[in-house]
Amino acid sequence: MTTTRKIVLDVLKPHKPNGVDFATALAQLSPDYHVRLSVVEMDAKTESVIVVVEGNNIAFDSVSELIKKMGASIHSIDEVEVHGSETI
User: Fold this and answer.
1) pLDDT at 39
2) pLDDT of residue 87
3) Is 9 exposed, middle or buried (0-12, 13-18, 19+ CB in 10 A)?
4) I need a labelling partner for 5 at 20 to 30 A (CA). Which of 41, 58, 59, 77 fits?
5) Residues 19-65 pLDDT 10s
6) E strands, 1-88, where?
7) 38 strand-pairing partners
8) Which band of pLDDT confidence, cut at 50, 70 and 90, is reported for residue 88?
9) 35, part of any domain
10) In this structure, is residue 86 part of a structural domain?
11) Long-range contacts formed by 14-21: CB under 8 A, 24+ apart
């Protein structure tokens, strides 16, 4: 079984929710999620942000769905860290 430990996403989001609320909502998907958000670019209506989610087993589908629910879209998956396990 493999587990996803880190994903780095390039996301286009509206100004609301703000970065704190956006990152907090993602972190609340799982108690072990650690979320960092950095604003890369901003215009009158949107912000381009880099979102880093780290955890023991990240559910990408849940992260992606919540991002869409908050009115944002994923431009790209810029980095992924997946850990495998030994088979017996």
Assistant:
1) 97
2) 66
3) buried
4) 41
5) 999 999 999 999 999 999 999 999 999 999 999 999 999 999 999 99
6) 3-14, 34-42, 46-54, 73-83
7) 50
8) low
9) yes
10) no
11) 14/45, 14/46, 14/47, 14/71, 14/72, 15/45, 15/46, 15/47, 17/70, 19/47, 19/49
Q: How many C-beta atoms surround the C-beta of residue 7 within 10 A?
A: 21
**Residue 85: what pLDDT?**
81
CATH of the domain at 24: 3.30.70.1340
Q: Sheet with 3-14: list strands edge to edge.
A: 34-42, 46-54, 3-14, 73-83
pTM recorded for the entire structure: 0.92
Q: Is residue 87 part of a domain?
A: no
Q: What is the pLDDT of residue 86?
A: 72
Angle at 63 between CA 61 and CA 69, to 5 degrees: 100
CA angle 25, 27, 31 (to 5 degrees): 130
Q: Count of domains in the chain?
A: 1
Domain range enclosing 63: 2-81
- In-domain check, residue 17: yes
57 strand-pairing partners: none
